[in-house]
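Appendix B. One record, verbatim.
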Amino acid sequence: MDINQYIEHTVLKPTMVGKDVELLIAEAKEHKFLGVCVPPFWVKKAARELADTDIQLVTVISFPLGYNQTEVKELEIKQAIAQGANELDIVMNISAFKEGMPWVKIELAKCAHIIHEAGCLMKVIIETAYLTDKEIIKATKLCSEAGTDFVKTSTGFAGAGAKVEHIKLMRESAPSNVGIKASGGIKTLADAQAMINAGADRLGTSSGVEIMQQYADSI
């Protein structure tokens, strides 16, 4: 298992500075991670430093709460793509979802159109910590029908992150052409392997280097 090719090496802490982005990218290059994930503010810098690599540049939209208005999300997406992002992780409007509003799906479809027209990938963060099992199934299906490329568990800012049982539910509820991204609380090789075995195609983690060290020690 080339576990490095599952990992989106992530730094989204509020206190991060430019040196954190530089270290993140240096580590991603060293370990040949699939991607790096940075806040929108740091996309332009990260894009410059990734210009000579095939590492994917991921950023977040309407993060971490998801209830920005659609027009704001669309502007965020366009700006991030213009500055070099390859993949956009959008927080679903959990408030509208809980209300049962059809707008959630319409909004995501609008976002998918912009993203795919630009040749980029879309992931939707459903924030599993706030959802029941039935809501996780419903949200996964909704996001898939709206045109997302991946459904993602968590922002890492809620009370809990990815759980194996939720990954299994999401994998069972999504069509085969929609990937599952586990994020939040993945800190060890055992965590990473458990998520992959449950059906995760991507791992969002700030512990990528530690996971790779444990992986090297295990082979």
